[in-house]
Amino acid sequence: MSEPEILLKLDQVEKRFPGVIALKSISMDLRAGEVQVLLGENGAGKSTLMKILAGEYRASAGTITVRGKEVSTLTPELAGELGIGLVHQELSLVPALSVTENIFLNRLPCDPLRRIDWRKAHDMARRALDALGVSIDPTVEVRRLEVAEQQLVEIARVLERGPRILLLDEPTSALSDGERLRLFDVIRRLKSRGVGMIYISHHLAEIPMIADRVTVLRDGVVVETLPAEKADEDTVVRMMVGRALDEQFPKQAAAIGALALAVENLASGVSLKDISFTLRRGEILGIYGLMGAGQSELAPALFGLQPIKAGGIAVDGKAVHFSYSSDAIAAGLGLISRDRRQSLVPMQPVGPNLSLSWLSRRRLLAPLDLKREREESGRYVRELRVRPSSLTHQLMFFSGGNQQKVILARWMSSGAHVLIFDEPTRGIDVGAKAEVFALMSRLVNEGAAILMISSELNELIGMADRVLVLHGGRVSAELDRDQLSQENLLRHAS
Ligand SMILES: Nc1ncnc2c1ncn2[C@@H]1O[C@H](COP(=O)(O)OP(=O)(O)O)[C@@H](O)[C@H]1O
Ligand SMILES: [Mg+2]
């Protein structure tokens, strides 16, 4: 058997940003027909590395060799010519353009009079999406699509260019199981045609499904590249975090205190029909349900983001009615929402992202307390070990786990005592997850009440005192901590 061609070789690649060294020394290679899974905690440098290979960032040092030829400066155009395609983590689509335009941007087919042949273009787009097993109307604007659909359009756009080297940066984070399996079929097909792929994911369970080799990054260096058979979860987690994870679910018993939140016969949105529960200080109440059971509308309804159709909410024994989220914040609620982008001001550093929560309590014309903002930002960045520990970097440069810590810091600084964690670990890595859970334990110990809405069974079992299971917009079971098991939760949910 002949050795497979080396498509890509990196030697001591470095990348510095002002104040941050994202990549210290990256040496690795990629073979034709292999899927190399790239792992690393948030902030390890994975996306930066992909953008360098796609010519979007320029390496500060080191050499990159593509199919035997050293390339000194890689531009997006050159990367394209060399057959390198990148599926971005943050999707790179143009929201106001149609699916077809996004897939074929600048390469739309023309008729002999050089007019765009839209019929042909839409047909081509439809076929490209068919190959991924999805039917999306190619004429609609991308901004009308759901995140999963947008992700599939992004993938189709890159595949349409017929890459020899395909880089996939967390392509499955928004996909359903079915869509993910279909993507794996596509990946296997490309593999058999000799395409080399670097595949980034937080789902360790995907490794045995597609990987040939696994490379682990930590703090901008390659820890190791190993064959997939040797990359069991324990091994790679230890490599990723640089230590054995002491405790994944650092739950502590907390004293149960006064009634903090009472919800009665609540109905809202399309799926939430009739839900009642109470939540006390010191308690973590879990909410579990399968897709569409109503759990995704609970947080918006409680936080004044979505109108209530029936029922009532009481905070600290007083009936409340929130028309805006600022009303909820003023009553002492805090929301860690399932879509971080909705909670953050990405163009601002930590400070304004914290003080945002004080605004609702501030008299309209009173000046914002900048000194307090500075002091509290510094304190929380230290206490919660936010990385980078910078008070000047915009939050858009922080990893998901670190953005999540800043949102938590916001509610800690606002003194919120009823905290709604809506899918709190979505898209964050194992190390940051354990830190978020430790913070939850600390918050309830300090007297907060937590509502934890999660689709991760093991997280609910690890952290909740009680779990309400939803089915068809109603409560189908209430399980105490000693009754929590995967089987039990699933049985009541389905
Ligand atoms: N454009 C940028 N400017 C400054 N720092 C950045 C930029 N992009 C990424 N970083 C920093 O580089 C490090 C690596 O980030 P990233 O490559 O996104 O990590 P990963 O994809 O592994 O989560 C982080 O500390 C991040 O804050
Ligand atoms: Mg990334």
From TrEMBL:
Q: Which domain of life is it from?
A: Bacteria
SUPFAM superfamilies associated with the record: P-loop containing nucleoside triphosphate hydrolases
Chief localization: membrane
Kindly list the places in or outside the cell where this protein is found, as annotated in its UniProt entry. Answer: Cell membrane
* Membrane topology listed for this record: Peripheral membrane protein
| Entry GO CC | plasma membrane
Q: Sorted alphabetically, which InterPro entries does this protein's record hold?
A: AAA+_ATPase, ABC_carbohydrate_import_ATPase, ABC_transporter-like_ATP-bd, ABC_transporter-like_CS, P-loop_NTPase
- Every copy of the ABC transporter domain together lies at 8-244, 256-493
Entry keyword annotation includes Membrane: yes
Molecular function via GO: ATP binding; ATP hydrolysis activity
Pfam families reported for this sequence = ABC_tran
Keywords for this protein: ATP-binding, Cell membrane, Membrane, Nucleotide-binding, Repeat, Sugar transport, Translocase, Transport
To which protein family does this belong?
Answer: Belongs to the ABC transporter superfamily.
Protein name as catalogued? ABC transporter ATP-binding protein
Q: To which species is this protein native? A: Manganibacter manganicus
